[in-house]
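To: structure desk
From: M.T.
Subject: fold request, one chain
Message: Could you run this one when you get a chance? Sequence is below, nothing fancy, just the single chain.
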Amino acid sequence: MKLVRGLSAQRILFFFFFLLVAFLGVYFRTYSLHGGPRLAFRSSESLARDVVDRSMAGQIEAAIEKRSPGLSVPERKQLAELQIRRSRTEDRLKYEDAVRKAVSSVERARKGDYRYLLEADPYYFLRQTERLLDEGKDPRPRKGGKRLDWFMRAPHGHWSVFLLHPYVGFYWFQIIRFFAPQASLMQILGWLPLFLTLLILPLYAGMGRVLRFPFSASLVGMATLTLSPIFIQRSALGWYDTDPYSYIFPISILLFVFLGLQDRKWLGIGCVGASFLTGLYALFWPGWAFIEVLVPGSILGSAVILWMIQRAEGWDFLKAGLRFCGFYILGSLFFLAVFLTPEGLRDSLGMGWFALNKFALAGSDIWPNIFLTVGEAGSITMLKLIFLTGNYVTFALAVTGLFWEGIHVLRRQDPAPKFRFFFFLLFGAPLLLMSLKTERFSVLFVLPLAIFAGFAVARFVEWAQGWASKLFPRVAPGSGWVRAAALLLVVVLYAPLLLISAHVVALGIKPIMDDVWYAGLSTLRARTPEDAIVDSWWPPGYFIAGIACRRVVLDGGTQEFHTAYWMAKVLMAEDERESAGILRMLNTSGEDAPDLLEKWGVEVPDAVDLLLKIVRLDRAEALQALPSSFSAEQKEQLLDKTHGRGALPPSYVLVYNDLVDQNLAVSIVANWDFRTAKRLQAEKSRTPKSFLGLLEGNALKRYIQDLLQTSGQWLKYTPVSPLAQKKGSLVSFANGLLVDLTSKNARIFIPARGIQGAPASLFFLEQGKLVEKSFEADTLDASALIFEEGGDLYSVIADARLIRSLLFRLYYLKGEGLSLFKPLLTQGSLRGGTFLRVFELERDKLRG
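Reply: Done. Structure tokens follow.
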């Protein structure tokens, strides 16, 4: 009876902590609804006054900066505070009216009026789910395990990996819509990651039971996983993406693996379950292959180590491991072939090797590798990994658990805990290495980190029980009260920093999509034909396809193709005929022209030079410029790819604030020297590549070294600056530029950085044309641009090549002085926040 009561109390305690972890998991993922503690313990009026005060302070400080640019930041803030106090007293009615309006906004936020999905990738899946709802099935053509996505890699479309995730969203929407008929598709899909996160908790508890973890170890591991900063980031409200599946499937697979290994009668179920889930995993995340390698590798590796330590028992585990691995590998390949088709399985494995080359073994191609310009594609330090996956206490607990568990199992004869320990040691080590090499994979390392933390708690509770029995002889060995007290002590010491880390990351989660983007893309959809192609850099590709429902040449799923180079050349070209000619080539035939030249044996550097020469010409001129070594048939075939026959698809160019402010990636790709890249490739080819290349330093650092050689000098740029002061014809800007509007003489004066002198040249518009005035004496290595937007003057200090580029002329000058690009729409303000412009390519002016 006592045993039953003890077990019931333990289960009740486990259930209580289980619900607490689930609550916290949802709480930190929904800050966009409730705002966290900042909103929870303050009235709407108090928060509204803060909002109004901050808004007033920002406006007043900006006005003070214009009037008195020499004042320091503390001085401006002090003056702003004085003016705010005066406004509260002298214009009380107006101030209180602003507070009342802000109260309404705060209360709407508290009611959960969130609008947008997080990041860009969820919009890719949103579009697929919308099509399922509209048509009842996936209408895309099939080939193996892929589907033709018409919106990607225009004009041909892109064969993308088929995933079941949009189908999960489809059924999730049908269920939730029944209970919330007024909710939008975007809102309902935004809640799916929270459901998937909650699904992980019972799966982790089941795995812990199969692994014979004490309930305290399972709970701490569960909390470590659920409240990991990177997992909160990638499963928060609005993150309609595939990341939660990278815990759901590995945990479920490990559950079946150990179920099959621990008892021979469960071997068949374990093998079939693990194999089936591995095959199914491939339909939810293209990076599934790591589990196919790590599971059998960890089983065999741990069995061999155990055999070396305990020959008899180890031999039994080795035989069981070999048997399981054989069935698992064959079974998973069978299910993978069924789910992906044999052709799809081959392509998926090839794509995995390709991604490894792009992320970790940079330098395998003479084309620019923009994979490594993506933030999460680079390597990270151990310190950053600690704060991505947890905090100092989490890592300290995990490392303690690793050593403590190792010592514990090695002192005992039971082989099962030894096998379990060695398995997770071998399972976690490659994931640690992958995480350090590529930030994106740090999501995967959270699972072994949680298990190692659970090891520490299990050993601590066991130690506490032994210590309590010695200190208090009347306490029964294995007392539930001692276990509960030990667990509570762990919670008191472990939880605070875990909760603080979760709070910090939750506060920083903001959607990239906003009203400006959404309104601009909705307008783009309304004002362009359905067969239009929108050309831009890769980050907004999913936005354009998902919201504007228009085709794109480049997006987050097609970065590996060479279109990125051509699009960079479009944006950085100083001759609009070159930009328009490249767009004509891309929107007519994609990358067919360079591929055709390579097929004919033309070296890549020569092919690029030839294409850049002919795209700016009309067809007749281009025909004359082609090499005499080409036959007449070849010439016509190539020109069909570059100039097309018949009407060019409706073509548009989209530029936006982040593209301009972060123009470095575009400029270095556009300045790529293929001959230098070819020489570097030849040098690297002398050293054969292997998986050991993962250990050879930082791929991103090596790639940056290559960039310095292949892209030349990087172009200088400082962001747009508003007018600070005007006295007669003399104007000064906050960036230190001074210009006489009459004589167009200019100086740059930045005392804090010791910069003083004339710009190399000053650019300005005159009678609708861009004019450049050069200076010769006392010049700096940068030029300046002044222009008007909305009745206000602005300036930019940058390299002259940037100012002359199509990107800057479209973004800053609204396309004035250009004849082939016509403004279509402008959304947002140059003064801050999202700002975008769209231009139509004047197809009729491009002679075929």
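Reply (cont.): Residues 1-6, 690-695 have pLDDT under 50 and may be disordered. Let me know if you need anything else for the meeting.
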